[in-house]
Amino acid sequence: MYKNKLYLLLLAALTCFAYSSCSDDDTISGEGEDNPYREFMTMFRSERNGISTSDRYYSDVSGINDIQLYWYGINGAAGYRLKAIIQGRDFDNPYDCIVDTVVGPECLSLKLEDLQYKTGYRFAIQTLSSRGEAYNSKWFGVGDGAHPDDYLNITTLERYDVPDVIWVENITQNSMRISFNLISDGNYKEHFEEENGRYVMDQIKVEPSSDNPTLESKIINLTEADKQRGYVDVDGLVENAVYIVNGLNNKVKRYWDRLYNTNMVRMKGVVGEPILIKHFVDPNDTILAAKRLQACRIDTILRNYMSDNTLAEGTTFLLEGGKTYYLVNTVNMSKGFTLKSNDPNNRPTVYLGIGCFDLGKANDDDKGDPSSCNFSFGRNASNGEMGGINVQSIIFQDINFDCDKAYNYLTREKWGKGSGLGNYFINQSSQAMPFSLETFEVRNCNFRNMIRGWIRFQGPNRKLVDKFIIDNCLFYDCGVYDNNGRGYSWIDGGSTAKDANANSNIFKDFSMTNCTFINSPRHAMLSENGNLAWPASTTWKIRVENNTFINMSTRSKDRLMFEMRYAPANSTFICKNNLWVLTRKGDGDNRTLYNAGCRIERFNGQVFDFADNYSTLNPNIAAGKHKDDEIFTSYQFSATNRGPGYQQGAQNIQGMDQTRIHIGTNTLTPEELFVDPQPSGVNGEENMHHHNIEGFRYKDTEKVRNSDIYKMKVGDPRWWTNGKIK
Questions:
Q1: Spatial distance between the Cα atoms of 83 and 112, rounded to a whole number of angstroms
Q2: Model confidence over 184-204: pLDDT tens digits?
Q3: What's the DSSP call for residue 356?
Q4: Which of 147, 391, 451, 565 counts the most CB atoms within 10 A of its CB?
């Protein structure tokens, strides 16, 4: 894989040529505050920099997997240095940089040939000075936070169809069997050479991935005996390491056309004892903003684990109960692990970003841009990584998650922003590789200040989660990303056209149980809205049970619980024993509190099991007018043209009546049920979505005890007891 980098550098040097008409003597000013005599910073000629896509000297894909770059000439330049990486990788990492070359001052273009198909590349360029390195311009394309337009991304086009001829079996700690079937079915003759009805493959490569790039490669030149046998055994591999397995036909000139289907494989390993991350506050850590927080940084530990082949997948990391930890950078989860408290009764707090980005401007008065980061499913590909990432299990347990300086739409003005902070708990990269996760669990965790979204899947590649569990979690002070309270859904399955992939399935076995969501507006609760040709084997099983939803997305209408218009056939939706609550701030609060149900419009074998869902009385409804189903202002579950109420509940196991949200025979207002349910503020105040969390314990009164809500133990069980909420 990395030998191919040398090929690219040589090719780049051979294909560099100048265009006199492209040599604009523009005065392009760099920042240069530290050295006012730097060379001017050049720029690539791209649409982002005002160049028309029809311009002759426009940087773009040339053909299918070649890229042609053009840039502006700078008077007096000694030359130009160019770098290229795959999007999401690091210009400073030598294993990520697939091009790092210098060209002369007369050269204002560079053609990179034979690049990886369907891959996003990012480019950087620097003007060189004859006076020495200190006088070189700043980099265009690397970015410094002050120039959002200073970058160039170009994505190569998709490769033609590739036959599946090679796969991996019998994976151990140090060996694997690579099997192959070279018999052609005649469908790929245009691009793949055949001899006597068999594909031509003369070599197999087992190369280290970018998780562990320094490991040794294994190259097997296939013999006729190997081909007849249909497999080769490879040993001497490193446990826990990730390898890329390819079969090649080296008669083909271009490297990326030599390959058949690619496999990415993680070797087995023995999981050791849990690792305690001892709480340590570094006195030299300037990120802590003058020691305002006694916090311990953990993102470096988790990021290093992903590429550490001395630690097996499935390692457990323990945080000290009651202590504070934080992340500075996003953690790409390409390897299964567990992160939990060493004391289940005393949660630690993990801040997904603390302080502000620019500590020179920031202080405790909230001046400057808040720091935020998140976890991410999988990671972006590196050079040669075309297979998917397979992860065993990711578990978060007994932790409070927060974002130190997060602001929402109502508190944005002191930050000089137009909307809330764009942060998440998990946000998948738009360039993430195909991703498969056996189990994802979030148990007994609290989440606060997740403003734009909670878990967001995105990107065009396949996303699979076999089992998805959220249990006994509390969500509060989240959301209000914009005036309508939207942002992304709590679980956003990638519902835009660019994220659509019919081979994805994150709701294969999904359950959300014993949770409470307090006044945290979102676009929707669960969302996957692509109108896709789902394979017959793809079904969803979604269970939402024993949860409490308080002022769930009340800011604007039609913010749904289930936004799944085109669910795959034969899917199952279970929604039982949940409690919905709408509550205002006293008699002076006259807001309309919106609440919406579901939009499921495909009914090919769908099974619904909706029953025993209740609500307190809706303050929008006048006295004497209360009835079942009043809690939803639109898209009721009982609507007969969608969801479980379709055709008078014909597909709901419990019948039509149980598609309705009941108020019960002994009805309760929120104030009658809870100790203190009302928000702290109202009508545009910054606290209008904040509540006293302890106030949602059920009152110990005869009226409450005689209510259906109490008798049937509806909603999140944490509120049934009088104990302190952890």
A1: 11
A2: 988 999 999 999 999 999 999
A3: B
A4: 451
Q: Phi and psi dihedrals of 717, rounded to 5?
A: -65, -20
Rounded to an integer, what distance in angstroms lies between the CA atom of residue 538 and that of residue 534? 6
Measured over the CA atoms of residue 240, residue 509, residue 331 and residue 527, the dihedral's sign is positive
Contact, 165 vs 247, CB < 8 A? yes
Residue 38: partners with Cβ closer than 8 Å, 6 or more residues away: 30, 32, 129, 135, 136, 137, 138
Please compute the mean of the pLDDT values over residues 90-103 and round it to a whole number: 91
Beta bridge partners of 195: 198
For residue 459, which phi and psi values (nearest 5 degrees)? 95, 155
The Cα–Cα gap between 190 and 183 comes to 16
Angle at 706 between CA 701 and CA 711, to 5 degrees: 110
Rounded to the nearest 10°, the torsion over CA 225, 226, 229, 235 is 130
Q: Are strands 375-377 and 331-333 parallel, antiparallel or unpaired?
A: parallel
Helices and strands in the chain: count of H runs, count of E runs: 8, 44
Give the torsion through C-alpha atoms of 241, 247, 249, 255, to 10 deg: -40
Amino acid present at 111: K
Mean local confidence (pLDDT), 122-138: 95
Q: Give all strands of the β-sheet with 218-221 in edge-to-edge order.
A: 218-221, 203-208, 242-248, 263-266
Distances (CA, A) of 559 to 66, 562, 665: 44, 9, 28
Q: Is 247 in a helix, a strand, or coil?
A: strand
pLDDT for res 494: 79
Does an H or E element contain 545, and which?
Answer: strand 541-545
What does DSSP say about strands 463-471 and 435-443: parallel, antiparallel, or unpaired? parallel
3-state secondary structure of 43: coil
- The percentage of the chain sitting over the pLDDT mark of 70, rounded to a whole number, equals 91
Instruction: Please answer whether residues 121 and 84 qualify as being in contact, where contact means their C-beta atoms are separated by less than 8 angstroms.
Output: yes
The secondary structure of 129-169 as a DSSP string is -TT-GGGSPPPBSS--SS-TT--EEEEPPPPPP----EEEE
- Asked if residue 558 has pLDDT above 60, the reply is yes
d(CA 280, CA 525): 37
Nearest to 603 by CA among 546, 643, 663: 643
Helix/strand/coil (H/E/C) assignment for every residue in 422-473: CCCCEECCCCECCEEEEEEEEECCEEECCCCCCEECCCCCCEEEEEEEEECC
Task: State yes or no: pLDDT of 516 exceeds 60.
Answer: yes
DSSP 25: -
| Residue of 284, 285, 281 whose CA lies nearest to 296 | 281
Please give the full DSSP string across 67-124, using - where no structure is assigned. EEEEB---TT--EEEEEEEETTS-TT-TTT-SEEEEE-TT--EEEE-SPPTT-EEEEE
Query: What confidence score (pLDDT) does residue 417 get?
Result: 85
Q: Scan for tokens 């700078």, then name that residue.
A: 74
**pLDDT tens string 263-282:** 999 999 999 999 999 999 88
Cα–Cα distance for residue pair 438/441, rounded to 1 Å = 10
The domains located in the chain, with CATH, are 3-155 (2.60.40.10), 166-266 (2.60.40.10)
Distance CA 101, CA 81 (A): 6
User: What secondary structure does DSSP assign to 200-238, as a single string?
Assistant: ---EEEEEE-TTSTTSPPEEEE--HHHHHHTEEEE----
Mean pLDDT (whole number) for 587-599 = 90
Q: What is the pTM of this model?
A: 0.82
First to last CA, the chain: 51
pLDDT tens digits along 343-390: 999 999 999 998 886 644 444 555 678 889 999 999 988 877 877 888
Q: Is 551 exposed, middle or buried (0-12, 13-18, 19+ CB in 10 A)?
A: buried
Q: How many CA atoms lie within 13 A of 193 on its CB side?
A: 13
